[in-house]
Structure formats: structure tokens, C-alpha cells
Amino acid sequence: IRRQPRSTLFPYTTLFRSDIIEKSPLFGLSKEKDAGGIQPERERVLSVDEIKQLRDQLPAAKMERTSELAIWIQLSTIVRIGELLQARWEHIDVNAGTWTIPAGNAKNAKTHTVFLSEFAARHFAELRSLTGWSEWVYPATRKDGHVCPKSITRQVDDRQRDNALTKRSQATGTLLLPGGKWTPHDLRRTGATMMGDLGTLSEVIEKCLNHTEANKMKRVYQRHELQAERREAWRRLGERLDEVINDKSRKVIPIRRAG
Fold this sequence. Notes:
The structure is a single chain. By secondary structure, the chain is mostly helical. It is built from 10 helices and 3 strands. The chain has a 3-stranded antiparallel sheet. The longest helix is centred in the last third of the chain and has 19 residues. The radius of gyration is 25 Å and the shape is globular.
């Protein structure tokens, strides 16, 4: 590329001659290999023993009680943490056992109804006693509106480091678990996995997760919301969490053999 003299029409403009390049400078490069690659899908699921250990370690983590409740509510409802932190009390009916997530707050832009188990409703009731003065389930302390959607994630991450990034917490390392680093989103995956272990069908779990069906044909023709099945899935998950966290014995129903 050679520099050309200034144009007489535009005396303050420098013109450059451009040539045709036969091959792109990016020829042969791939996003997967040369530009950072595709972010690997996380598969972290907390075990039952880790959930118990988390219960025992939370007091040492010195988190606000509202943050502790967020952990148990997310685990029992398998919602996205941002959906919880942006929720309004007007959309939660603890007595009826329902939580409606408006389309504007849902990742797939579709209204989603969560059927609260007794476990989830109990934690929501305690949370309401702490933040019920606000229209927001998790109100911001320094401004109107809700807290930052990443606030719980930051708190959990900070307490798994050897050294805290800020002075927010002196409880470094208190939320480390044997299976490695975990995030609030892993609680969503953990709850869904527990649903599967309890015998819930995968299509019901997908509805509970508010996932969008990938197959367009199924999206168009399968409109059944599986409300009864979803309610039962959340109920069973809540009962299982009560058994794990509160050390309640699991009910075993004997099956009589024919004859």
C-alpha cells in the first residue's frame, strides 16, 4: 500500500491506494482452535454429601441470611439465579404455592410457573419476613430496584478463593467442597439431577427448567404444559431436600408381592 498525494478537493484528507488481497489474513484460522475455542459445558453436580457439607459450612461463610436462603430456594426451584434476584413479591403466592416468572425476566422470554414445594415455600416465607417491606424479593440496599443479578454468584465465588478479591468477605475458603468449585448455576443442575434420580421423566424436568424445545416440530405441536407432573416433580424434590438437609428419615413403602 503506497501513500498518495492529498486530494485537491479535500486538502486535509490523505488518500491511500488499496490492492486486492487474494487470500484473507484469517484464512486457515478456526474459532475453536485459534480464537479461544468454544467454552466447555459445565457438568458440576453437587452430591448429597456435599449438600450436607454445604449446610454445615454456611455459618462460617458469614453470608447474610437472605443469601443463604437464595441457595436453598434455587436448589429447590431449579430456577436461574438471576430470575430469583429480580423477582417481585407480587408474583409469589406462598399460600397457593406458586411463583410466576414473567416473560421479561425469563431467559427464553416465556412466562414460567414454578410450583413451590413445602420446602421452597418455607424458605420463601422466611425471606418475606426479611424483605417483605419491599416490592422486590431481593431489594438493593443503596438504590431503588433489585440487587445485582450476579451478587450471589460473587459471594459464593469469593468464599471459594484462597484470598478474597475485596474486603467483602474475610471468610475465604469456607464454601469449598470436595467436588471442586461450584456456582449457583450448578445448584440448578443439581436440583434437576435429583429430580431425575427420583424418577421424574426428562421432558418434565425440561419443563421445570423452562427450557425451549430444540425441535421446531415439537415446539409447534406439543403444547401440553405437564402442570400436574411438574408440581409432583417439585414436591418430590422438596421432600428429598428436607430429608438431606434436615436429616429426616426417608419414607420407604413396602411393596407386597402377588400371591
